[in-house]
Write a structure and sequence with these properties.
16 helices, 530 residues, eight-stranded mixed sheet, globular, alpha/beta, five-stranded parallel sheet, FAD/NAD(P)-binding domain, 32% helix, binds 3-acetylpyridine adenine dinucleotide
Length: 530
C-alpha cells in the first residue's frame, strides 16, 4: 500500500484507538499500524495467568464519551486482562475504529523528509505511507526485556515471557517450572502457576513489596454512585498526583507526626482494605527515609507473619525504600511460598550464571526445570520507540538524539523531529498515573495541536534543544526531591544493562496538565512553529 494521510499512528492500544476517534472528529485522515492482530496494546500482549489492572475498573477506562462510560459494566473491582481486552474491543466496535487500523503489521521506519516536511513510514508488509504528522502510540511497557543469559538458546523446554504470552494459554499441569523475576507480572502469575504446576522455582534478584489487592466482584451500589457523578469523579481523579484515587482517604500530615500506635492502626486498616490506598495514609512516605521506613517495616513484619519458613521469609523481605520501585498488589503472593511445591532461589547473592538444556544454573547449583517463564519486565518507555528506525532532520536517528537518555519537551516531542509526537513519552507523568487519563490528555493535546497547525497553515512544529534540556532537568529535579531515584528501578532504566540512567516519568499529573495548557495558551511556547 502506498498512500498519503494527515497522520500516521504507530500502535492500536488505548492511545492509538483514541487518536483515531479524535482525528475523525477533526476531519483529519489517519492510518494506524498495529503489530498485533487486534486492538488493546499492552492488554493484547500481557495474557499471563493472573494479569489484572491494579487501578480500579471504574477509573481505568476512557472518560471521553459519557454514553460509553455509562453503558459499560465492569464485573470486578480490578479488571482482569480478558475483561480489559473485551472493553478495548467493545470501544473499537462501538466507534468503528478498526477500519483505520492495519493489523499484523509492524512499522519498520519513519523518516522525515526536509524537502517537503513529510514523514515517510514503512512497514514489514511493504507499506509506504506519507503523512504530515506521525504519532507514536507505542506504549511505555511494550518492549519485552529478556536478559541474555549464557546458554539460553540451548534450553530444550518451552520458554515464555509474561509480556508476550501465547493466546491459547499455557497448561502447567505436571510441569516443573522456573520463573525469573519478582515484579508485578511475576507476583500476579506466581500463585496461579504454583497451583497448577508440579513444582515452581522462583528466581528472585530483588524482593518486592506487595500489598493485598483484595480484589472482589464489583460493588454495584458504588458503581451506581460513580456513574451518577462520573464527570465530577473523573475531574477529582485528574486533581490527584497519579490521576486516580480521589476516593482514597489521605491525611495531609507526616507519618512521623502521629504516635506509633496510631500509625500502625492506620496501616492495619489500609492493609485490610487493600490496594494503593496503603501508601496514601500520610504525605511523606516518598519524601523522607524515616517516614518511608515506618511503612516499609510494617510490610516486612506482615511478610514474616505470612511466610512460615523463616529462611524463605528472610529472602522475601525487601530492604529498599517502599514505593521507589512500583508497588505491587497481589492475591496470595507471599502465601504461595508456604506451598510444598514452591522454592525460592535468591539470585542477588548468586546471579544466574547460565541456562542449560534442562535448567538454570545459579551459585553453582543447577535447578532443573522443563518450562522457563521470563517475568523480567520491559525496556520501559523508550524500548519500543528505539526499535523503530526513526529519523528526523539531517537524517539523525532518534537513537542518536537519545544516546545519553531520552530528551523530550513535555514528553511530547524531541528537537529535530518536527511534527512527530509521542503519547505518554518519557518526560510526561505516564507510568506514574492512571495511564488512560494520561493517554486521553496527551491525545487531546496532540490532536488539538495538529488541528491548529493545519488550520493556521503552518508547515511544522518542533521544540528546541534548549527547551527539552531544561525540561529533562526539571523532570529529574522533581524526582530528586523524592525517594524515587534511590533504587534500581525501570523508571530510571536501571533494569536494562547499558541503558542510560535518567529518571523518565514526571511526578505530578495536575501541574503537568496545567503546564501543557499554559504552553498552548501562550501560543505553543517552547515550540517553534514554522
Ligand atoms: O517487570 P519488572 P514486570 N536476573 O521490571 C527481574 C506494570 N504492570 O513485568 O528488580 C534476574 O517490574 C527484576 O529484578 P530486579 C507495572 O508498572 C502492571 O513485573 O531488576 N532477575 C524484577 O524482579 C510494573 O512495574 C501490572 O532486580 C532479573 C523482574 O525481573 C511494570 O508493568 C501488572 C533479571 C522484572 O520486574 C513492569 O512489571 C504487571 C536478571 N538478569 C505489570 N532481569 C498491574 O497493573 C530482570 N529481572 C497489576
Amino acid at each position: 500500500m502506498e498512500r498519503f494521510v494527515d497522520i500516521t499512528v504507530v500502535g492500536a492500544g488505548f492511545a492509538g484507538m483514541y487518536t483515531i476517534h479524535r482525528a475523525r472528529q477533526m476531519g483529519l485522515s489517519i492510518q494506524v499500524f498495529e503489530a498485533g492482530d487486534d486492538v488493546g496494546g499492552t492488554w493484547y500482549w500481557n495474557r499471563y495467568p493472573g494479569a489484572r489492572c491494579d487501578i480500579e475498573s471504574v477509573e481505568y477506562s476512557y472518560s471521553f464519551d459519557d454514553d460509553l462510560q455509562q453503558e459499560w459494566e465492569w464485573k470486578e473491582r480490578y479488571a482482569p486482562q480478558p475483561e480489559i481486552l473485551e472493553y478495548a474491543q467493545h470501544v473499537a466496535d462501538r466507534f468503528n475504529l478498526r477500519s483505520d487500523i492495519q493489523f499484523s503489521t509492524r512499522v519498520v521506519s519513519s523518516h522525515f523528509n526536509e524537502s517537503n516536511n513529510q514523514w515517510v513510514t514503512t512497514t514489514d508488509k511493504g507499506d509506504i505511507v506519507t503523512s504530515k504528522f506521525v504519532v507514536f502510540a507505542t506504549g511505555c511497557l511494550s518492549s519485552a526485556n529478556t536478559p541474555q543469559f549464557a546458554g539460553a538458546t540451548s534450553f530444550t523446554g518451552d520458554v515464555y515471557h509474561t509480556g508476550q504470552w501465547p493466546h491459547e494459554g499455557v497448561d502447567f499441569t505436571g510441569k516443573t517450572v522456573g520463573l525469573i523475576g519478582t515484579g508485578s507480572s511475576a507476583i500476579q502469575s506466581i500463585p496461579i502457576i504454583a497451583a497448577q504446576a508440579k513444582h515452581l522455582t522462583v528466581f528472585q534478584r530483588t524482593a518486592s513489596y506487595s500489598i493485598p489487592a483484595r480484589n472482589d466482584t464489583i460493588d454495584h451500589s458504588y458503581v451506581k454512585d460513580v456513574k451518577n457523578n462520573y464527570k465530577q469523579f473523573r475531574d477529582a481523579n485528574r486533581q490527584q498526583t497519579g490521576a486516580f484515587g480521589s476516593n482514597i482517604l489521605r491525611y495531609d500530615i507526616s507519618a512521623l507526626s502521629v504516635t506509633e500506635e496510631e500509625r500502625r492502626a492506620e496501616f492495619e486498616r489500609r492493609w485490610e482494605q487493600g490496594g494503593f490506598a496503603f501508601l496514601s495514609a500520610y504525605n511523606d512516605f516518598l519524601l523522607t527515609p524515616e517516614a518511608n521506613e515506618t511503612v516499609a517495616q510494617f510490610v516486612r513484619e506482615k511478610i514474616f507473619s505470612i511466610v512460615k519458613d523463616p529462611a524463605t521469609a528472610e529472602k522475601l523481605v525487601p530492604q529498599q525504600v517502599i514505593g521507589c520501585k512500583r508497588l505491587c498488589l497481589d492475591s496470595g503472593y507471599f502465601e504461595t511460598f508456604n506451598r510444598d511445591n514452591v522454592t525460592l532461589v535468591d539470585v542477588a547473592s548468586s546471579p544466574i550464571e547460565r541456562i542449560t538444556s534442562g535448567g538454570v544454573v545459579a551459585g553453582n547449583v543447577e535447578h532443573e526445570v522443563d518450562v522457563l517463564v521470563y517475568a523480567t519486565g520491559f525496556d520501559a518507555m523508550t524500548g519500543s520507540l528505539l526499535k523503530i528506525d526513526i529519523r528526523g532532520r539531517q537524517n539523525k536517528t532518534l537513537s542518536d538524539a537519545w544516546e545519553a537518555g531520552p530528551v523530550t519537551y513535555l514528553g511530547l516531542n524531541t528537537a529535530g523531529f518536527p511534527n512527530m509526537f509521542m503519547v505518554s513519552g518519557p518526560g510526561s507523568p505516564s507510568v506514574l498515573t492512571n495511564m488512560i487519563m494520561s493517554i486521553e490528555q496527551h491525545v487531546e493535546w496532540i490532536t488539538d495541536c495538529i488541528s491548529h497547525i493545519v488550520s493556521s497553515g503552518k508547515a511544522t512544529i518542533e521544540t528546541t534543544e534548549k527547551n527539552q534540556d531544561e525540561w529533562v532537568a526539571f523532570v529529574n529535579a522533581v524526582a530528586d526531591m523524592t525517594l524515587y531515584p534511590s533504587c534500581n528501578s525501570w523508571y530510571l532504566g536501571a533494569n536494562v544493562p547499558g541503558k542510560p540512567r535518567v529518571f523518565m516519568p514526571l511526578i505530578g499529573f495536575p501541574t503537568y496538565v496545567d503546564k501543557c495548557n499554559e504552553v498552548v495558551a501562550n501560543g505553543y511556547e517552547g515550540f517553534v512553529l514554522a
